Amino acid sequence: MLFGRKFILRTDHKPLLAIFGKNKGIKVFSASRLQRWALLLTNYDFKIEFVSTNQMGMADTLSRLISEKSEVEDKVIALVSNSDENYSDEDCSDEDSLLVEESIKYVLNIMLDEVPVSAEQVKSETENDSELKMIKQFIKNGWPKVVNDPALSIWSNRRQELEVIDECIMCSGKIVIPKALRKSVLKVLHETHPGSAKMKGVAREYMYWPNIGRNIEDWVANCIRCQSAAKRPIKSELRPWPNTNRNWERVHIDFAGPCKDGKVYFIVIDAHSKWPEVFENMTTSAKDVIKCFEWLGTHYGYPETIVSDNGSPFPSNEFKVYCQNKGIRQVFSAPYHPQSNGQVERFVDYFKRMMTKNSNKKNWLSEVLLFYRASPHESLEGKSPSEVFLGRKLRLNLARLIPKKVTFQENKTPQQVKMKTWFDKHHGVKNRKIGKLVYFLNYRKDG
C-alpha cells in the first residue's frame, strides 16, 4: 500500500507537474477526471517527477498489456517508485476503488455546491484561484507593460477599476467571484427564477467576473422550469401610456387568479416607479378592493389615477363612489384587449411565471417581490423600483458578499459638534458651589 508512505510519482506527461505538484495547490478543474485524481492524490505523500518517454520502459510495457475492454475515461499511466525499499506492492480492491469514487463525489458536492457564499469564502477561494492570485500581485506590485495572455488582458484593460480589499479583489466596487464559487453564486441569483435580465441587473450591483452575462444566460437557458414557463410572444404591438412625472400619479390594477394555489391576488403597479404591491387571499368584490386601497392610502397616500379593465368590481357603483370621495380618477382600458392595460398585465404575466417556478417554496411571494423591487428596470434607466419609489436601494442577502471597507468611528460629524455646542450654550444648567443650599424635587412624594 502507498498510503502513509512517501514515494516518487514519475510521469512522461509534463503538464501533470503543474496540475498535481504540491507547490501549486489543488484547483477546481473543469474536467471531472482531474478533480477526482487531484482529490485522490491529496491523501498521499509523494513527489512528482518528469521522465522522458524514452526512459519510461516499465510503464510503457504495461501500456501494451491494456485490456480489450473499452473505458469511458482516459487513465493516467504513471510509474510509481517507492522511496522505501521494504515496500510491499499491493493493489486496491474494486470495492475500495468504488468507495473512494463515491467519497470523492460526496466531497465535491460539499465543496462546490453547498458552500456558504460569503466574503470569507470569497477571500479563501481567491487565494486558491491561480488567475486571481496573479491579478492580486499585479494590483499590489504593478502591472507589466505588455500582457500577452488573453485571459489576463481582460483584467489588464480594467486595471484602473481594480483594488484589493481584505484580500478580496474588487472591480468598480463589485466583488470579483473566484471560479470555484461562481456556480454557487449563480444558484443564489437564480433562486426565484427571475429571468436572465433581472439576474444580470442584480449581479451588476454586487459582483463581477469575465463573461458573467453570458454565464447567466446559459444558466437560465438550461433551467427546465424557466423554459417551461417561458413567456409566449405577444400577438399585437403595445402602445405605451403617457409618461408620469411622480410616484403614485397613475397606478394600474388587476386581478390574477384563481391561480394554481386556488388563491386570487390583487395587483397594483405604480406607472412611474414600477413598484408592485400584491394582496393575496382576495375576492373580486368592491369591498375587498377598497380595503386594499385604504391600506395603500395609509402607507403611500391615494393615487391620482387608477387604470383598470372593465371586469367586476371596478365599474361598480360602490367603487366609483369611493374613488370620487378620495379624489381618484378612474380610467378603463379597452374591453377584450388586455394589452391596453399593459403595465399591470406584464407584471401579472411575470407574477404567474414566478408562481410556477417557485410553487415549492413557502414564502415565495415575499422573496419574489423583494427581488423584483431591488432589480434594475430597463424603463427606469437602470434604476430599481425601490430607488425611484423609496429613494434608496433595498438590501439583499447578496450584500454579505461585499467586505466592509469603512469602519464606523466614534468621531462626531461637524453637524453633531454644532448641535452639542448649541445645546451646551443654551441648556440653562447652572454651576453650583459645594455647601450651597438647593431645592430638591422628590418624585416619590405624593402630590
From TrEMBL:
It holds the Pfam family rve. It comes from the Eukaryota. Signal peptide: none annotated. InterPro entries: Integrase_cat-core, Integrase_H2C2, Retrovirus_Pol_polyprotein, RNaseH-like_sf, RNaseH_sf. Residues 236-422 form the Integrase catalytic domain. Its EC number is 2.7.7.49. One of its GO terms (biological process) is DNA integration. SUPFAM superfamilies: Ribonuclease H-like. GO terms for molecular function: nucleic acid binding; RNA-directed DNA polymerase activity. PANTHER family: PROTEIN CBG26694 (PTHR37984), PROTEIN NYNRIN-LIKE (PTHR37984:SF5). This is RNA-directed DNA polymerase. It comes from Meloidogyne incognita.
